[in-house]
Amino acid sequence: MIEKKKVPPLPITLNNQQTAAPVIAPGHCRIIGKVIAISPEPEAGATGICGKVPCRAKIKIQKILGYGHSFNQTLAIDQEVNAYFTFSLQPTAKLLPNMTTPLSGLKIGSSFQADISPSAEMAGTTVPWYQVAVYQIP
Q1: Contacts within 8 Å (CB) and 24+ apart, 18-24
Q2: In CATH, what is the architecture of 29-136?
Q3: Which residues are registered as beta bridge partners of 94?
Q4: What whole-number distance in Å separates Cα of residue 97 and Cα of residue 100?
Q5: I need a labelling partner for 19 at 20 to 30 A (CA). Which of 41, 44, 128, 130 fits?
Q6: Alpha-helical runs (H) found in the chain
């Protein structure tokens, strides 16, 4: 009988200067992006926040930080994509006072980090859209 060697488990401890990055959800890509254009009009016919303030923008991908399982799109640095911001591009403190962590708002030239996911195509377009729920300012 062959004797099996005992192999110690891989260390997963982190020193005080490192933090573990949160897991990227399936179907999402974590990026650092920059807002390059904002659709100035709220969505016609929308009943939620996006019927009151702009939620659509064109963003430029500055860095790809990782992919979640089953993200089936190909993205590249410097690629420009359409983004739909679920909670708007405006600061959310007054718009959504019950939001646990208010978002600061984004404007043209703002850089942000977010997990994006493919969204249903906007009516009348064939260009893909990506949904952004929450974001952080790096």
Answers
A1: 21/65, 21/66, 23/68, 24/66, 24/67, 24/68, 24/115
A2: Beta Barrel (2.40)
A3: none
A4: 8
A5: 130
A6: 92-95
Cβ of 90: how many Cβ atoms within 10 Å?
20
User: Which two tokens mark 84?
Assistant: 């739909």
The domain limits of the chain are 29-136
Give the position of tokens 């195509």: 121
Coil, strand, or helix at residue 94?
helix
Single-letter code of the amino acid located at 34: K
